[in-house]
Amino acid sequence: MNRFRRAAGFTLVEILVALAVLAIALSATARSLGAALDTTAALRDRTLARWVAEDRLAELELRREWPDLDVKEGDADMGGRAFHWRQETGVTPAARMRRVEVSVFLKGDDSTLAKMTGFVEQTATQAVPPTLPGSQPGPQPAPQTEPPR
After folding, report:
1. Which residue segments constitute the domains of the chain, with CATH numbers given?
2. pLDDT tens digits for range 52-102
3. Count of alpha carbons within 13 angstroms of residue 70, beta-carbon side
4. pTM of the model
5. DSSP per-residue codes, 4-52
6. Sheet holding 71-78, edge to edge
7. How many CB atoms lie within 10 A of CB 106?
8. For a FRET experiment, which of 38, 49, 80, 113 has its CA 20 to 30 Å from that of 55?
């Protein structure tokens, strides 16, 4: 048996050292592959969350709504993942502009994946008529007219 080891050119110690080096290299490769998979999953979640935020801002623009100064929350599905969004509307130095900030989280998680800010301009069709003190806001009944004779 000693002749076989010598004939092949390797001793048992050399084989064990080679196997140890191979084991270390394979474990490092597996660890880096796992880290790459985690990074890819995190990037996918952040991309989908950004799309949810963009959808919220686009919806405000398309509806041509004048948003109230408040906080709204809701849920959205994107790419097979469940997200939760929070929309905070605030004032700007310009009276006819509102600042809308949308934050998106994975459902059940508090860490922000995406945050986008948009601005909404009040158009003439969104203008709210001023109310007089003591009057009820909202639509007023049409004035009564006499039928033609």
Report:
1. 2-125 (3.30.1300.30)
2. 999 999 999 998 888 899 999 999 999 999 999 999 999 999 989 999 999
3. 5
4. 0.62
5. HHHHHT--HHHHHHHHHHHHHHHHHHHHHHHHHHHHHHHHHHHHHHHHH
6. 71-78, 81-91, 97-106, 112-121
7. 16
8. 38
